[in-house]
Amino acid sequence: MKGYKNKVLKLNKTLYGLKQSPKAWYSCIDSYFLKNVFVKCLHEYAIYVKLKESDDTLTICLYVDNMIFTGNIPKIFGDFKQVMIKEFEMINIGFMTYYLEIKIKQGECGIFVNQEKFVKEILKKFKMQDCVKVNTPVECGVRLSKNDEG
Prior knowledge:
Blueprint: H1 2-14, H2 21-35, E1 39-40, E2 47-51, E3 57-63, E4 66-71, H3 74-88, E5 98-99, E6 102-107, E7 110-114, H4 116-125
Antiparallel strand pairs: 1-2, 2-3, 3-4, 5-6, 6-7
């Protein structure tokens, strides 16, 4: 683990402002995850999954210098956050509310996502603010399910 501390110090010097900085960061965190029994998704290079014998699952998604993670046991979240904060000097911002032009609202009833702000900006850009609007541009009532193949 000490080697990672040295890498973090080197990354602090290069992470912002240089074109190769994201590659250096990704290389560092990729090797950390792989050494700590995470499996990289075959279909998406920025997703890692850690499965334990007790069926506990932790899934991580990286996007540049942002990290989103989820799993099936809340205790895993706290443990993972503490390790990452200590290992990489990260900060814990808390629950995700906005990510890649998507607004996320988490509550007792579930997780709701929308792109209202993004859509309004696109409509404004193409002078289409007065077009006919549709509340949900997908079929209502469709339930998403696990895809065992990917």
